[in-house]
Amino acid sequence: MSHNYRRQAWxxxxxxxxxxxxNMRLELDLPPQIAAELLHIGLNQLLYLESGYIGKxxxxxxxxxxxxxxxxxxxSFEKKNIK
Length: 83
Fold this sequence. Notes:
Elements: H1 2-27, H2 32-39, H3 43-50, H4 59-68
Helix pairs in contact: 2-3
């Protein structure tokens, strides 16, 4: 059973990261096409990231997002009790 909970937690994490990436872009009022060009990634890749499909995302993409969107990259972990 714990495997299912870990998978669900990972999916929730991916979705949250995708939403944060989308929110950063929207705060800058950037359409997806312009943001993808700015980040030097494909439009489909950006849309996948924003949808929470980050399984193959490289740290360089995260760095580019933070740098180009003028955000400080900060990763924090919050302890949650998983049943």
